[in-house]
Amino acid sequence: MKTINQDNIWSISSFLENKKYNFSKESILHVLPAKDIDEAYKTISKWNNYSPTPLIHLNKLTEKLKFNKIFYKDESNRFNLKSFKALGGAYAVEKVTKGNKDMVVSTATAGNHGRSVAWGSKKLGLKCKIFISEYVSEFRAKVMRSFGADVIRVKGNYDNSLKECIKQSKQNNWQIVQDVAWHDYKLVPKLTMAGYSVMMKEISEQIKDEKISHVILQAGVGGMAAAMVAGIARYLDNVPKIIVVEPESAACVLESIKTGKIEKISIKKESLMGGMSCDEVSLVPWEILKNSTSHCVTVSDNCISKTVKSLANCEFSDEKIVGGECSTPGIISLVGMSKDTKIKKKINLNENSNVLLFGCEGDADEELYQKLLTA
Ligand SMILES: Cc1ncc(COP(=O)(O)O)c(C=O)c1O
After folding, report:
1. CA-CA to 361 of 20 to 30 Å: which in 197, 220, 329, 349?
2. 223 CB within 6 A, ligand 1
3. Are residues 129 and 167 in the same domain?
4. How much is the mean pLDDT over the chain?
5. Domain edge (last residue) among 138, 154, 178
6. What is the DSSP code (8-state) at residue 23?
7. Ligand 1 centre from 273 Cα, in Å?
C-alpha cells in the first residue's frame, strides 16, 4: 500500500507567495478591534451550552509527515450546529437586533451561516428569512426550516440569492444579517468575524506553552481566515506563517493577493466545498488578509472523500473525527506542500513545526457526508 508521501493524489494545484506580506498587529486590530473581539468572547461564552470545542492532536499524521505537532480545531460539534459558523451569524443577530422582538432577520447563505442566523433568531424569538441558491442542498434547507426560518430558493448561484435577499429586505424592511461586506455594509460582517474569533481565544488556551509555527486557513469570502488572523494578533505572542487555502475553482483570495487588489473571479464549476465556493473576497477580510497572508494555496476536489474517510477511520489521529468537505483542504494542502521540498524549505516546514488546521465543519450536510464516506 502506498504511504501518504508516495500517493500522488495528495497535491496542491497552486502556490503563491504574497509579495506584499507585512503582518502588522496594529493595522489588523484597527480593522477588527480588540474590544470587539473581547466583547464577542464575553457574550458567546455566556450562551447556554457553551464550551470550547476540542483541539485534537493529529498524532498519526504528524508522524507520517515528520513535524512536531499538527493541531486540528474540531468545530463539528459547535453548539450542535456542526460548524464554526454557529459563532458568527447568531452573535450578529443578537447584537444588531438589540432585544427588539419585532425585527425580521434575513440573510443569503451557502448553508452554515444561514443555520447560525436561523438558530440565533429562534433563540431570540425573531422571524427569519433565508435565501439560498439552487446549489444549496435540500438537506441544509430542511435544517434551517427546523429552526423556524422561511427558506426561499433562488435560481442561479449565491450572488443571485444575495441580490434577491437585498431586494426583498429593502421592500419589507427586514434586517439583513450577512457575513459578506459591501461598501456601506461593514458592521454586521465585522460582528460575525468577532464571533468567529472565539475559536482563536480557545486555541490560545488549549496550546498551553506550544507556539504555532504555521496556520492554514480555509477561505470562502475570507471572513473566517481574517477573523483567525485578528485572533492571532489579539491572543498569540508570536506570528505563525499564515497560509490561505481555497478550492482551485474558487481562488478569489489567491487571485487578489496576486494583483494586490480585489479580483472577482468567474467560477466555472462549483467545488464540492460549497461553503468555500466564492468568487470575491469580502471587503473587511481583504483589509486584513491583503498584508497578513504569507502564502496562498489551492486544492482540487480529488482528495476530499479520501480525507473525510481518513479522519473518520482514525488514520490521522487516535480519535475518530467527523470532518465534512470544508474540513479537508487544510490537511490536503499540508500533505501536498510537504511533498514539495522547495515549498517546504521556502516556508520552513520541518520537524520543529507546529501546524494549526481548522476542521471547520462536521457532517453539516449529512447526506453529502455519507456519500463522501462511501465514495
Ligand atoms: C463550512 C464553511 N463554510 C464557509 C467557509 C468560508 O468562510 P468564509 O466565507 O468566512 O471565508 C468555510 C471556511 O472554511 C467553511 O468551512
Report:
1. 349
2. yes
3. yes
4. 96
5. 178
6. -
7. 9
